[in-house]
Amino acid sequence: MRDLSLDALAAFAEFAEDGNFSRAAVRLHISQPALHTRIAKLAKSVGTPLYVRSGRTIEITEAGRRVQRLVRDMAISMSTFRNDLLERETTQPVVLAAGEGAFLYLLGPGIRAHLSHRRHALQLMTADGASTVEAVRSGRAHLGIACLDAMPRDLAVESFTRVGQMLALPRKHPLAARRSVRLKDLGGASLIVPPPGRPHRLMLSQMLQSAQVPWQAAVEASGWELMLHLVKLGMGLAVVNACCRVPAGVVARPIPELPALQYVVFSRKEGVTGAAQTLKGTLLAHADAWQDSVRRSPP
């Protein structure tokens, strides 16, 4: 530990935020050569590379990510120690990472309940599933909530809520007269779908292909809000999460054949701060509140 410089640790953590030497040097108010020297000495001290170059891209190694987590944990510990020493409440915010859809439709009741107590500052980070996992792994976020294809074994994962899927369509569409929709009813439909490669589109394509249902992409769009707006404009139909609130002129019908989506809350296995535990408990207590607040279309 005598070989580990606190300045070098802090310098590497700053550089690892975006993998850019010039911007990190500006933020640290040092020259780029000085930054390179500090990071090189740190890598020599720990005995393994902290980053690798792939063309013009810089990738932080797993050892580098662990150094990032160490620096963030040290910062939290020092802040907690200082506040305890001065007998004052911590000002360190709890960071919650989740997708745009989760913040829009699932987490509102829990966040409002947390803020009503005013116990701890809260910082929100919007990211997709993979980025949310990485934010928790690196320590940039204390908690993450997402619907994941595979559960990360290196994180502590707990069930949050299950969300079904539904078909959003104009109120005057023939299928709007039904109480529910089957996949075969979508034969020949023009669907508003995410771009190729996105998890939702992959799932939907596989399910329709397995049911031998032909379909075509009317529009490629990202985000439930935009997809629902395009349905309202009459651009096509869209399969969306059942937690979404449909706009006026649009109705939603359940699709029982499509699987419900499991959202999970996760954190590092090393444990989280007391403030993060409090937030987690509040969010879990309101995990299913979206079922009461979502606006349903009449049958």
Report what the structure shows.
By secondary structure, this protein is an alpha/beta fold. It has 3 domains: 6-61, Orthogonal Bundle (Arc Repressor Mutant, subunit A); 93-162 and 264-293, D-Maltodextrin-Binding Protein, domain 2, CATH 3.40.190.10; 165-254, D-Maltodextrin-Binding Protein, domain 2. Helix content is 40%, strand content 22%. The chain contains 11 helices and 12 strands. It has helices at 6-16, 21-28, 32-46, 62-85, 100-105, 108-117, 129-138, 199-210, 224-232, 274-285, 290-293, and strands at residues 51-54, 57-60, 94-98, 122-126, 143-147, 155-163, 165-170, 189-193, 215-220, 238-241, 250-254, 261-268. The strands form 4 sheets. The protein has a 5-stranded mixed beta sheet with strand order 4-3-5-12-6, with helices on both faces. Strands 10-7-11 form a 3-stranded antiparallel beta sheet, covered by helices on one side. A two-stranded antiparallel sheet has the order 1-2. A hairpin with a 2-residue loop joins strand 1 and strand 2.
Radius of gyration: 23 Å
Structural class label: alpha/beta
Uncertain stretches: none
Counted by DSSP, the helix tally is 11
Query: What is the CA–CA distance across the termini?
Result: 67 Å
Our estimate of the beta-strand percent is 15-25%
Could you estimate the helical fraction of the residues in percent?
A: 40-55%
Which architecture of the largest domain does the CATH hierarchy give at level 2?
Answer: 3-Layer(aba) Sandwich
| CA-based shape | elongated
CATH superfamily of the largest domain: Periplasmic binding protein-like II
- H/E element order: HHHEEHEHHEHEEEEHEHEEEHH
What name is given to the CATH topology of the largest domain?
A: D-Maltodextrin-Binding Protein, domain 2
**Which class of the largest domain in CATH terms?**
Alpha Beta
Quaternary structure state of the chains depicted: single chain
Number of strands: 12
Adjacency order of strands in the biggest sheet: 4-3-5-12-6
Q: Give the biggest sheet.
A: 5 strands, mixed
Nearest-integer average pLDDT: 88
How many domains make up the coordinates? 3
